[in-house]
Amino acid sequence: MMIPEDGDEIEIRSYKHNGSLHRVWEKTIVLHSDETTLIGGNDRVKVTESDGRTWRTREPAITYFTTDYWFNIISMMRQDGIYYYCNISSPYVVDHEALKYIDYDLDIKVFADGSYKILDEDEFDIHRKKMNYPDVLQQILYKQLRILEQWVQGRKGPFDASFVEKWYDYYRRNYK
């Protein structure tokens, strides 16, 4: 796997279990990257859906990807606080084209007050059946969902506001 340099602009691509392209984020600035973690920053970035529809994100975001867990975290900087959108996904890889991962539908949305909601269980169930997820994969994904919930509840890693504020300040000072 390639390890991007700090300051590199990368594209982010999510796929579905069957290999179909799901969504593309046009560019994210690499703020930190090593063998297991990539932290990025973006603002009002163009997103292209699998059907070709495009839209732009509404606020600055700090992204957190890891090869150690089956999830990634997007921290969104809003007027009333930090919100999070977390994807249960395969660990990421980076090649000469983009940062890539498989999106497994299960998501957690975390609100500025720390409350959260698990999303898209119905979509997960549909895709689980349609794409024939193996039992062992389903076990991994639900275990990772529980780990992610523990991170949210314990304000671990990106869920510690000081983590996001540090990286957002770095992004703002160096790349905006």
TrEMBL record:
Name of the molecule in the record: Protein associated with RNAse G/E
PANTHER family found in the cross-reference section: PTHR39159, UPF0374 PROTEIN YGAC (PTHR39159:SF1)
Residue ranges of every copy of the DUF402 domain listed in the record: 18-154
Swiss-Prot/TrEMBL keywords: Hydrolase, Magnesium, Metal-binding
Species for this entry: Alkalibacillus salilacus
Ranges in a coiled coil: none
Family matches, as InterPro entries: DUF402, FomD-like_sf, Ntdp-like, SA1684
